[in-house]
Amino acid sequence: MVNISTINWLFVCGLCFCLGGIGVLSFMPLSSDCICPLSNPLAKRTGGEGGVGVMEKIPAAEKQPHDHKAAAHKLALLVPFRDRFEELLQFVPHMTSFLKRQNVAHHIFVLNQVDRFRFNRASLINVGFHFASNVYDYIAMHDVDLLPLNDQLRYEYPSELGPLHIAGPKLHPKYHYDSFVGGILLVRREHFQQMNGMSNQYWGWGLEDDEFFVRIRDAGLQVTRPQNIKTGTNDTFSHIHNRHHRKRDTQKCFNQKEMTRKRDHKTGLDNVKYKILKVHELAIDGVDVTILNIMLDCDVNKTPWCDCSGTAAAASAVQT
Ligand code: UDP
Ligand code: MN
Q: Locate the Galactosyltransferase C-terminal domain: which residues (predicted)?
């Protein structure tokens, strides 16, 4: 027979075991933990060479995109982000109503770069893809400051021909060259994988989208764009971007100019180096949004222009 004091002992021992376990876990090196991609029974456990962070349960796992559970295709809006809070507060409700009117099943992922290297839009998109692509079958690489105004712009699943460029050169308020694919680009999961995602070499503003255009072409794909749009460059989008307030980081240092003009055959989705430090689930005006705090890693021997001033490593280490 088991008496009360035996039960008490069992309880105390169980508690000790649990606390001990937690103690051991908290001293485990980070590399053995992971913030994993959204869960899917068929999913791999980690993304790329990174995908490493603090141990955490992800409430977003198995997340169903807004209201449209039966939709054939699910869109992950991947929003590269650093220090654009005011824009985000406009973006989230705007995009939610816009896509609701089109019945597009979607979820917004804010890819928040938290390291001290220069901004790297393309690497953030690679990381967001690793995180979301088990569940979502197409992505929109979406600037936070470009709001579509015309309901004729359909955020539909791109055709087998290739990516669907929503912010085409005849519609974008600022960029008008034929091969432009920036701003808002929708890509099928398998096409993004086929191209090995985007280059990781673009630190600072510009050219990562032009390099991606060459990847599209080299993969035998083509860019399609919305047809018969009745609005033009002034009234298709609102570009909430004041160039004095939000200065573009156009600095070029080391051999950046020369290196970033070439097609990059080496880097992409399969070798982006990062840690996801934290996953926040936030509601903005009642809309659920997932924020990934992403710490990108830069090999300063290969791409020294990720840190023109040479202070990024120190800035990450010192907390004052
Ligand atoms: N971005 C950001 N913080 C930055 C720089 C860029 O969040 O410091 C993101 C944001 O989504 C922005 C996009 O990257 O919309 C493209 O950058 P930017 O607006 O400067 O480029 P533009 O297309 O206006 O030249
Ligand atoms: Mn902008």
A: 163-239
